[in-house]
Design goal:
heterotrimer, A mainly alpha (303), B alpha/beta (246), C mainly alpha (324), A: ABC transporter involved in vitamin B12 uptake, BtuC, two-stranded antiparallel ribbon, globular, C: two-stranded antiparallel sheet, 1% strand
């Protein structure tokens, strides 16, 4: 690889990792609190992206001078709306009914939901690619190490990712509701006995997780075009991050996302055929050495 | 013949020493009762000796063979049978099938096409059901059994292995008090019939006095007293720390 | 006995319909292949483990068939199938050595990851694997005959029916055997198996190879039928479909996988008629319905107590209240 390309690769990886982290964060949060591996998370990503693209298009098409801030805000608004709507639908309509069932059955029900949502996405937005590249154009470029990056990719996305991480950690550690979330994660039954409204906590957590997934999709739209199948690809990709880190590990997900994002990016610039394989290769290698993920803690005694 | 010997068995979890250089020996024919407060290390010691846990240092011998690094299934084939504090049953199989699985486990080969029931000696299974008082429950699902019956099934499965030594972890705990003695009588009767050496963890002093030839008392990961029941129960330290009396 | 009679009747119906309505041959064969693959997944479900990557064995077998058919066009179709199955079993044996150390969600995820590695590699190395376009193969001779398209499909139909009947019966016998019941013991109490002198890993490994063989057979037949193999055969959604069918049919009896496959094919047909490109919605809705209403699947719910000669307890995927 041409060493001149290294900064480009690293920046690329950094940005990609940021997106990956947002999606994986939502997934791992939901698993941590509810014990469910949500296959429909891929649909959150897709819906968030498509909704964001549509909203931006709609705003731009109204004509006139639209400040960049509004367009960027539109991404967030779309993500939040998608997260709340789909999150409520899924949690209240479906997941509540399988709260006590076998984890595999819970997973399969989210798979069923994913199949439905995937087709709904086709019905709403069809097969034409969607994007919102106006935004990247507006935010301009940055010159670094002799290479040109879009500010969106280099600064904005990683910033959002880190902000999300920081906010969540603060929330979980220092706010009352956050601590309740942690309590429900560790032992829902005991938490309920202590007066914590576990049902409400689960709903809120699921919605937050859904929003994060949708945000990943929304933020990806200025950079890439959305086509049918993004959700399907993204779900296994975010699985690889979550599994590598360890289910429910938040900081772990950040590190794993960086690892995988960087590795993939380096692959693009060195051995492009391996770009798609890299995340799964890493997941396999990590799981072979540490079956519960890199950062999981020990298990209690059984007999 | 010496069935079990440990030399300087040591294991700690962080700051807690669960097995403190234990030197222990068990002879054929003994009926050993192990007593001690919860958390003293009685079950952990069993887990180590049977290969479920790995000790930090020390050696374990079963029937003369060094089994320090052997997994439980290896030691089972040398003559070990075990029942658990929480009965470990196959809850989606019938009582009879549980015993049939134990039988094929002993035989050591698992045919792929011959039905399970045809691969074992049913008369032996019937006999084991008889001596453990489960004769009428053979076709029930293991999950349908009451607490006491589950304990009996747990022991029955170990018996089918035709072990030289049967280790029982609290065989009467969780069982209604009126059933306790009956269950213990049944089990010890079955063991006597087959000349099986027994090692059981027990909290009930009466049960111990009735059935044990030897008592070992555990305190904080070590054997604090070891000898005849009357001797051990007379020791002041044991009376205070383990029995809670003076 | 009942299951045996039902199976033979079902097979006869399939054959008759296939001969009377030639257009039905392809969907029936595909359905049988789905059944075989789901049976493979069901074998592992008996041990309480769900693999989300078993389509990789169909894929491995399929590409093996394609490679050999393109390199040696005179090779008989039956030999190609055998080659495909062997490749799948060998892969299953090697991968199984690692994978049987894992349980539950981690077992599922590791299988998924491996299948995605395969999928990604197959899609990228265009020179060797044809990339996302896949590989085409010409219709090979079958059982010594050079059939035309119609005869070829009939031959494949007969093969698929025979394979399903024989393997279904064998797997059902396996379920009731010492190895099969020990496999079921893994689901409820591995510790106990260990303390009865058995190696849970070794038992699971045998089951894993059997499941790989079944998925491989399905893949080989489908590729021979379609004359084409693409990486999509190994995609995670395909593995999910196998799991779906296994759950739908239930793992209480080997026939379940085929019942599930029939229902799956019907849903696909009806869905395509009603909803065209978005028929998967119907699939998703059915899956949700099944899990909410009858998680033990069709064979777990139908009140036929004696499905076979052995005393078959009802196998449920739901933990019995309080137990884990």
């Amino acid at each position: 690889m041409n060493l001149d390309l290294l900064p480009l690769a690293l920046a690329d990886g950094f940005s990609y990792a940021g997106l990956l982290f947002l999606v994986a964060l939502g997934l791992t949060l939901i698993f941590g609190v509810m014990g469910i591996l949500n296959v429909a998370h891929g649909a959150m990503y897709a819906f968030g992206g498509y909704a964001a693209a549509s909203l931006v298009q709609a705003i731009v098409n109204r004509g006139g001078e639209v400040p960049s801030v509004v367009l960027v805000l539109a991404l967030f608004v779309a993500a939040i709306v998608v997260g709340v709507v789909l999150g409520c639908l899924l949690e209240i309509g479906l997941l509540r009914r399988v709260q006590d069932k076998d984890p595999v059955l819970q997973l399969l029900i989210t798979f069923g939901a994913f199949l439905i949502l995937d087709d709904v996405q086709l019905l709403i937005w069809g097969g034409t690619p969607y994007s919102a590249s106006e935004i990247t154009g507006r935010l301009g470029t940055i010159e670094l190490f002799g290479a040109t990056f879009t500010a969106y990719q280099l600064v904005f996305i990683p910033l959002v990712a880190l902000l999300a991480y920081g906010t969540l950690q603060y929330f979980l550690r220092y706010t009352r509701v956050g601590r309740q979330v942690v309590a429900v994660t560790h032992n829902a039954e005991v938490a309920t006995a202590l007066g914590i409204h576990a049902k409400r906590i689960r709903l809120v957590t699921f919605i937050v997780g859904a929003i994060l997934g949708a945000l990943g999709g929304a933020l990806s739209v200025p950079n890439t075009s959305l086509v049918p199948g993004v959700g399907t690809d993204m779900i296994v990709l975010s699985f690889s991050v979550v599994a590598t880190a360890g289910l429910g590990q938040i900081t772990g997900a950040l590190i794993a996302a960086l690892m995988i994002g960087m590795a993939r990016s380096l692959a693009v610039y060195t051995f492009p055929e391996f770009e798609v394989v890299v995340p799964y290769l890493i997941m396999v290698l990590v799981l072979l050495i540490r079956p519960y993920g890199l950062f999981t803690v020990a298990q209690a005694r059984k007999i | 013949m010496e069935l079990v010997r440990t030399e300087n068995l040591y294991l700690a979890f962080g700051a807690i020493v669960v097995a403190d250089n234990i030197n222990f020996s068990l002879q054929e024919g003994e009926r050993l009762a192990v007593i001690g407060a919860n958390g003293a290390g009685k079950t952990t010691f069993i887990n180590i000796v049977t290969g479920y846990l790995r000790a930090r240092s020390g050696r374990i011998f079963f029937s003369g063979t060094d089994v320090t690094k052997m997994p439980p299934r290896g030691i089972v084939h040398l003559g070990l049978g075990r029942s658990f504090q929480l009965p470990q049953l196959f809850l989606e199989h019938t009582v009879r099938q549980c015993l049939e699985l134990a039988a094929v486990g002993r035989i050591g080969s698992l045919p792929l096409l011959k039905p399970l029931s045809a691969s074992v000696d049913q008369s032996e299974i019937d006999h084991t059901l008889e001596v453990t008082g489960l004769a009428t429950r053979g076709e029930e699902m293991a999950s349908a059994l009451g607490e006491g019956e589950r304990k009996l099934l747990d022991v029955a499965m170990a018996l089918v292995l035709r072990p030289k030594l049967l280790i029982m972890d609290e065989p009467t705990s969780g069982v209604a008090s009126e059933e306790k003695h009956g269950i213990m009588e049944t089990i010890m009767g079955a063991l006597a019939e087959r000349k099986v050496t027994s090692w059981f963890v027990e909290h009930d002093v009466d049960v111990v006095t009735r059935h044990a030839t030897r008592v070992a008392a555990w305190i904080s990961g070590r054997i604090a007293a070891d000898g005849k029941p009357e001797q051990v129960f007379a020791e002041p330290e044991i009376r205070r720390q383990v029995l809670g009396t003076h | 006995m009942i299951a045996g009679i039902l199976s033979v009747i079902g097979a006869a119906i399939c054959l008759v319909f296939g001969l009377i309505f030639p257009w039905m041959k392809v969907p029936i064969i595909v359905g049988l292949c789905y059944g075989l693959a789901a049976l493979g997944v069901a074998v592992l479900m008996r041990a309480g483990q769900v693999s989300f990557g078993h389509a990789m064995y169909s894929c491995i077998a399929g590409y093996t068939v394609a490679f050999f058919a393109r390199a040696y066009p005179a090779l008989d179709g039956l030999l190609l199938v055998a080659a495909g199955v062997v490749a799948a079993v060998v892969a299953g044996a090697i991968i199984g050595l690692f994978v049987v150390r894992y349980r539950e969600i981690f077992f599922g995820m590791l299988n998924l990851a491996l299948s995605m590695v395969l999928y990604s590699v197959l899609g990228k190395f265009y020179e060797i694997t044809g990339g996302t376009d896949g590989l085409r193969l010409e219709r090979p001779p079958f059982a010594g005959f050079h059939f035309d398209r119609s005869g070829y499909e009939t031959a494949l139909l007969v093969t698929a029916l025979l394979a399903s009947l024989v393997l279904g019966a064998l797997v059902q016998r396996y379920f009731g055997s010492a190895a099969g019941e020990a496999l079921a013991g893994i689901k409820t109490n591995e510790t106990r198996l260990e303390y009865l002198g058995m190696s849970a890993r070794r038992i699971l490994w045998s089951g894993y190879m059997i499941s790989a063989a079944l998925c491989g057979l399905a893949g080989a037949l489908v590729v021979l039928l379609q004359g084409l193999v693409t990486p999509e055969l190994g995609y995670w959604v395909r593995s999910g479909e196998f799991v779906f069918i296994a759950i739908l049919g239930g793992s209480a009896h080997a026939l379940g996988a085929f019942i599930g496959a029939v229902v799956f094919q019907v849903i696909q047909l009806v869905g395509t008629m009603l909803l065209a490109g978005t028929w998967k919605m119907l699939l998703g809705a059915t899956l949700i319905l099944v899990i909410l209403v009858a998680p033990t699947g069709i064979t777990g719910v139908l009140p036929i107590k004696r499905w076979g000669k052995s005393r078959e307890p009802k196998i449920s995927l739901q933990p019995i209240a309080g137990e884990r």
